[in-house]
Amino acid sequence: VQLGGIHGWESHHGPGIFNPSGQGGWYDHEGLRDQSRSRGTIGSMRGPNMATFGECLPGSCIRRNIGRIAPSNRYAVSAAIGIRTAGNDSKEVFDGVTIRLVSHGKLLAELSTDTPPGPPNSVTNVGFSWNSSSLPDGISVGDPLAIEIAPNQASGDSPGYLDLDNVRVTTLKMSEERPASR
């Protein structure tokens, strides 16, 4: 964690980091208390901190370069999305989420939803996959690959939030099909 953003990620319009206490302000869960056996985690959280967007401006996002597009690979993308308690003190609502893989500003694949992926007071994994054997025009093997995560501003006039953790991109080399031997 570093001041002004999330270490290793570019940020636009100020996402932050917080450590939910489990005392009911946003999440009400014994497992979130740092002295619990789970060391401050619930659901799919990897550690005691979560990234958060709060009352987001249009265009808010975080972005990270993750390498170059490799031939014949399947990229599996997942993230843990937190849904705050229904009676949280701040009355913020889930702002939706878009997670996308991009290269040179072109969309390769995405997951986008305005519906909370889990019940209130939970942290739930979401994900999608993309096969690099189908590239859009203008994109080639070896081009840069990045992941972007943004709130959708689905909260309308209400204050919105997007809490996330445990972002993963896993690559799996796909086997090349060989003709059947006779």
Describe the structure.
This protein has one domain (10-173): Jelly Rolls (Sandwich). The model has no long low-confidence stretch (mean pLDDT 85). It contains no helices and eleven strands. The chain has 182 residues and is mainly β. It starts with 9 loop residues before the first strand and ends in a 9-residue tail after the last strand. The radius of gyration is 18 Å and the shape is globular. The strands form two sheets. Strands 2, 3, 5, 6, 9 and 11 form a six-stranded mixed beta sheet that branches.
Layout: helices, strands, pairs:
Layout: E1 10-12, E2 16-18, E3 50-54, E4 61-68, E5 73-83, E6 93-94, E7 97-103, E8 106-113, E9 122-131, E10 144-150, E11 160-173
Parallel strand pairs: 6-11
Antiparallel strand pairs: 1-4, 2-3, 3-11, 4-10, 5-9, 5-11, 7-8, 7-10
Compose a concise summary of this entry.
The chain is an all-beta fold and 182 residues long. Helix content is 0%, strand content 43%.
The helix-and-strand class reads mainly beta
Number of domains: 1
- The Rg value, from CA coordinates, equals 18 Å
Cα-to-Cα separation, first versus last residue: 58 Å
Query: Any idea of the CATH class?
Result: Mainly Beta
CATH superfamily: Galactose-binding domain-like
Largest sheet: 6 strands, mixed
Strand content: 35-45%
The second-level CATH architecture is Sandwich
| Number of strand segments | 11
Uncertain regions spanning at least 5 consecutive residues:
none
> Which range best describes the helical content: under 10%, 10-25%, 25-40%, 40-55%, 55-70% or over 70%?
under 10%
